[in-house]
Amino acid sequence: MEVKIIYEDENLLVIDKPAGIIVFPAALSGEPRQRREIEASEKTLIDFLLEKFPYLKNVGKPPRYGIIHRLDKDTSGILLVAKNNESLIFFQKQFKKGKIIKKYLALVSGIIKENQGRIETLIGRSPKNRKKQKVYLPLEPGSLGKRKAVTEYEVLKRFKNYTGAHKALCARYTLIEARPETGRKHQIRTQLAYINHPIVGDKLYSFKNQPQPKGLKRQFLHASYLKIKLPNGKEKEFKSELPEDLKKIIEEINGKEK
Question: How many other β-carbons are positioned within 10 Å of the β-carbon of residue 101?
């Protein structure tokens, strides 16, 4: 696999992560054993990075090494990697304090009527499915100890993808830009499903019999923008274009819109 580098300096690597690859093995990261084991034959992104940048073995602790944050396996886009321990601590503090500006492009099921919105909930592991996260509201049973999660979103375009002569036979989608203010696991995916607009192609959070564009093989979620402060005090912006597989989906549904 060729690892695309968006930016590099003495402290930071910015990777354009492809979809379909796990960032690092969760089974070794101290998380509950209920998490699925990664097959020995499946290489993770950190494996490829260690081959190309062996010095990362001296940054942080295994299995993350210099990985500052994480993207889900089937999410593509901007990923930050620290090149030394000092910068790892520096950047992680910004994430913990919510100083990072992140933007994602997502295609969701259904038409979102409002041009923009804000989702503010609690999030924790689902008691019914250990692979999933669940939205909790304050004072709801089971909400004690769950963590606050906030996501703002803006509608970029609405699609009515007709599949037949009758207007009832259509799949409706909305392309949005999501801006998470917090960094909870599966946050965007969980909260969009909570407001009844799950991400198209999301195998874990999609609804039963949810319409899906032809040719889509993964969740339509891409980390497109990130703004962070560098150790020298300067702010830096990084951008990642929508990958070809997702561009083709937009072209497909745009072409069928009436």
Answer: 14
Examine the pLDDT at 109 and tell me if it is beyond 60.
yes
What's the CA gap between 181 and 150, in Å, rounded? 5
Q: For 180-233, how does the pLDDT look when each residue is reduced to its tens digit (9 = 90+)?
A: 999 999 999 999 999 999 999 999 999 988 888 989 999 999 999 999 999 999
Measured CA to CA, the distance from residue 117 to residue 226 in angstroms comes to: 20
pLDDT band (50, 70, 90) for residue 42:
confident
Task: Tell me whether residue 72 is one of the annotated catalytic residues.
Answer: yes
107 and 21 in a common domain: no
For the stretch 119-146, pLDDT in tens is 999 999 999 998 999 999 988 988 999 9
Domain that holds residue 170: 101-258
Residue 244 CB: number of other CB atoms within 10 A? 8
CA gap 103, 228 in Å, rounded: 12
* Dist CA 24 CA 151 (whole Å): 25
Domain count, the chain: 2
Last residue of a domain, one of 80, 99, 118: 99
- Distance set, CA 137 to CA 123, 124, 147, 243 (Å): 9, 11, 10, 35
**What is the predicted pLDDT for the residue at 255?**
76
Tokens of 169: 């036979």
16, 72, 74, 202: which one is catalytic?
A: 72
Final residue belonging to a domain, choices 32, 65, 99: 99
CATH label of the domain that carries residue 54: 3.30.2350.10
Tokens in use for 57?
């073995």
